[in-house]
Each structure stands twice: as structure tokens, then as C-alpha cells.
Write a structure and sequence with these properties.
The complex is a heterodimer. By secondary structure, chain A is an all-beta fold. Chain A is built from no helices and 12 strands. Chain A is globular and about 40 Å long. By secondary structure, chain B is mainly beta. Chain B has one domain: Immunoglobulins (Immunoglobulin-like, Sandwich). The chains are: A mainly beta, B mainly beta. At the A-B interface, strand 5, strand 6, strand 10 and strand 11 of A face strand 4, strand 5 and strand 8 of B.
């Protein structure tokens, strides 16, 4: 069975500081990995995804994530955050082929001035 | 093109009443998901429809919750005898879903229905 663990429920950070949101998954087969973002009072939208190939994936708004198979991790990073990055971030995993996508519990990123 | 739509956007009901929430997925998407997002909580998976297969109902919290998908398109989530703890935002998402390639598993979310049970 697949599962996703987001190790931090909340991450406060000052503006222009770097940030890393952690995500670990468990699966016995190859998976596809996603990060979704939900801005305040808005719907969920895809931030980036890993399907295959390069383990460093770049997404929208300057975010990137690195797939680490040996550590079963897919941590999300941004070198310098903005106030507008305040949102909830969800890591997700899918086996594809009609299997359902599993979401983590979410990490609330709060960027302070 | 049109995205996933949900109706109503807001619903206030009295404890004990039944409610129906509707989801219109993106045309051509065979996979449809329902999630619940309670205040301060993450996404809670409720039910998953994939094509003509039997739905995965493993996330439904009680037998008061049910969902159907007519004609492989529109879905309705029904909550019977609502309780105050059912208050949450109910999100629907769809994806192309049938291929083995992950790109087709990207989910597109609707705006949600905010349910308040008084």
C-alpha cells in the first residue's frame, strides 16, 4: 500500500529566507509524485510533478523538488520565499494506471515579513 | 476549456437533514475523486470512481455518506442525517486516469462546496 507523510504540519519562515517542505512516501512499486498548493480561499492547483527522468523537478513560482528514490523522499524547496507563498502545500503519490492518488496531510507555510 | 465545477458553492443545513453535493468533472476525464477538508485539517479521501469499475469507497467515514456517478460523468455525494462534524469543504477532482503514464493522473480540483451543519 502507498502512503505519504508530510513531516511538518506548519512551517513559519521569514520573507526571502529559503524553505524546505518535507515529504516521504512508501510504495513497493514505481510511483509518480506531485506537489499541490492551496492558496488562502482558493482551490488546489498543481505545483509540480515527477514522472520520470531528471530527479530535480521545477515547478511554478520558483519552487522545485527533488526525487530521492533511496530515501523515498520528494522534498519541496524554494531558495527565497515571498509573502505570497503563504499557502498549504500537499504532497501526493500515484501509481498511475487507474490507481488512486494518495495525499499527505498538508504543510501550512506561513511567510512572515 | 471548462474546469471541474461543483454546486452549490455554499450549503447551510440543519442537523439531521440530508444534503446532496454535485460535481461536474472535466469532459473526458474517467477518474473522479471526492475529498473532505475540515477546518485546520488536510485532505481526507472519501471515494474514487475510475471508469466503469466499482468505486473505491474506503474513505467514506460512515454509512451516512454515499456517492454515485451517472453515465461516467456527473457525480453526486449524498450525506444523510447530517451531523455538525460533517461541516467541512467538500472537494471534487477529476483526472484522465486510465493510462499508465503519470501525467494523466494530474488531478484538477473544483472550487469545493462549503458545508455548514447547524
Amino acid at each position: 500500500a502507498q502512503s505519504v507523510t508530510q513531516l511538518d504540519s506548519q512551517v513559519p519562515v521569514f520573507e526571502e529566507a529559503p524553505v524546505e517542505l518535507r515529504c516521504n512516501y512508501s510504495s513497493s512499486v514505481s510511483v509518480y509524485l506531485f506537489w499541490y498548493v492551496q492558496y488562502p480561499n482558493q482551490g488546489l492547483q498543481l505545483l509540480l510533478k515527477y514522472l520520470s527522468g531528471s530527479t530535480l523537478v521545477k515547478g511554478i513560482n520558483g519552487f522545485e523538488a527533488e526525487f530521492n528514490k533511496s530515501q523515498t523522499s520528494f522534498h519541496l524547496r524554494k531558495p527565497s520565499v515571498h509573502i505570497s507563498d503563504t499557502a498549504e502545500y500537499f504532497c501526493a503519490v500515484s501509481r498511475g494506471g487507474g490507481f488512486k492518488t494518495i495525499f499527505g496531510a498538508g504543510t501550512r507555510l506561513f511567510v512572515k515579513a | 476549456g471548462a474546469g471541474v465545477s461543483q454546486s452549490p458553492s455554499n450549503k447551510v443545513t440543519e442537523k439531521g437533514k440530508d444534503v446532496e453535493l454535485r460535481c461536474d468533472p472535466i469532459s473526458g476525464h474517467t477518474a473522479l475523486y471526492w475529498y473532505r477538508q475540515s477546518l485546520g485539517q488536510g485532505l481526507e479521501f472519501l471515494i474514487y470512481f475510475q471508469g466503469n469499475s466499482a468505486p473505491d469507497k474506503s474513505g467514506l467515514p460512515s454509512d451516512r455518506f454515499s456517492a454515485e456517478r451517472t453515465g461516467g460523468s456527473v457525480s453526486t455525494l449524498t450525506i444523510q442525517r447530517t451531523q455538525q462534524e460533517d461541516s467541512a469543504v467538500y472537494l471534487c477532482a477529476s483526472s484522465l486516469g486510465t493510462s499508465g503514464t503519470g501525467i494523466l493522473e494530474t488531478q484538477y480540483f473544483g472550487p469545493g462546496t462549503r458545508l455548514l451543519v447547524l
